[in-house]
Write a structure and sequence with these properties.
- Helix content is about 80%, strand content about 0%.
- The protein has three helices and no strands.
- The longest helix has 25 residues, at about 15-35.
- The radius of gyration is 30 Å and the shape is rod-shaped.
- The N and C termini lie far apart (about 85 Å).
């Protein structure tokens, strides 16, 4: 590493090896964390969790009930006409 005056700083080789090993370990942990976040299984679990949260909201339940009632009414109406 260079000093402010342009001279090269001498560093202990063992210290450098330890620093490189720590950096590699940190990088490996970061990569593992990212891989878990984007795995298809975890993405599916996250999507299902968000879906459950949305479905549990009262306004969504009321809307779903309304759609169900209208659908059933249309099916009954079509059967009576046909």
């Amino acid at each position: 590493m260079a000093e402010p005056n342009g001279e090269v700083a001498l560093r202990d080789p063992d210290q450098l090896v330890k620093e490189i090993e720590r950096t590699r370990e940190n990088l490996a942990r970061t990569i593992d964390t990212l891989a878990q976040r984007v795995s298809p299984a975890n993405l599916g679990k996250q999507a299902m969790s968000r879906l459950r949260e949305q479905v549990s909201r009262p306004e969504v339940r009321i809307g779903a009930a309304a759609v169900t009632v209208v659908t059933v009414a249309l099916l009954i109406w079509r059967r009576r006409r046909g």
